[in-house]
């Protein structure tokens, strides 16, 4: 299972329905390694990762999507961020014991799902859905119905096969502005549902698609690699620093002589001393793109 994580898009030629099949096993391991997450949290991050990868693959523009679960339960935050290049990162925060086998609702408590779509050019969009469904997939299907009015099915799977952990999933969606018959869509969803987690995380994509849809005419497009990559940088962190109250920053500088910012997603540290801070403030005062 040491293959590269990949996203495959496909189209049913005789139905107005498209699909996406993704394996994110390596990316998942990179996101959870180095953290001491309880088993159910690891699994949920895996499902969130599969979902975010499938969602970003539906973007028609350059940008990124953040899928975030928030609540008052022992798991107060689980978030995955990914962009149209399929560069994914994520983190979870707990504030209490999480028992083995806990369900989504047991972990998150009273909570909701926040989906933030940030195009590189243009307006940010945010959608919020309550955790009505019992599973993450059900909550996201609800989101698609409300926001895009497109019938969508998501199959999010995590598990273990051949002694290794894996995560993968499938998205089926009716094409916008086309009449797909409900029966066709239900039929394709029923076929898709038969996929076993083990097949999804161990078999090559073409094999999975053949097993599911060999009676259908399916066009499969060139795959896209999925990878773990944090998009943080010293510059971006500096921008965050710039938004903090100056008095607060000055206080820390006076006490510690430097400001140590660390990235929640990847753990990178960015250290700024008084001179760095002065430069950041100077940049924001004059406009960093101004030519002198
Ligand atoms: Zn980072």
UniProtKB/TrEMBL annotation:
Q: How is it modified after translation?
A: Under oxidizing conditions two disulfide bonds are formed involving the reactive cysteines. Under reducing conditions zinc is bound to the reactive cysteines and the protein is inactive.
State the compartments where it is located.
Cytoplasm
Q: Name one GO molecular function term.
A: unfolded protein binding
Which Cys residues form disulphide pairs? 230-232, 263-266
Q: Name one GO cellular component term.
A: cytoplasm
- What CDD domains does the database record attribute to this sequence? Hsp33
Provide this UniProt record's keywords sorted from A to Z: Chaperone, Cytoplasm, Disulfide bond, Redox-active center, Zinc
Q: Which InterPro entries match?
A: Heat_shock_Hsp33, Heat_shock_Hsp33_C, Heat_shock_Hsp33_N, Hsp33_helix_hairpin_bin_dom_sf
| A Pfam cross-reference name | HSP33
**Predominant location:** cytoplasm
Name the residues that span the membrane: none
**Family note:** Belongs to the HSP33 family.
Cross-referenced HAMAP family: HslO
Cite the NCBIfam families for this sequence: PRK00114.1
Biological function:
Redox regulated molecular chaperone. Protects both thermally unfolding and oxidatively damaged proteins from irreversible aggregation. Plays an important role in the bacterial defense system toward oxidative stress.
Protein name as annotated: 33 kDa chaperonin
Please spell out the taxonomic lineage of the organism that makes this protein.
Answer: Bacteria, Pseudomonadati, Pseudomonadota, Gammaproteobacteria, Enterobacterales
Q: Which gene encodes it?
A: hslO
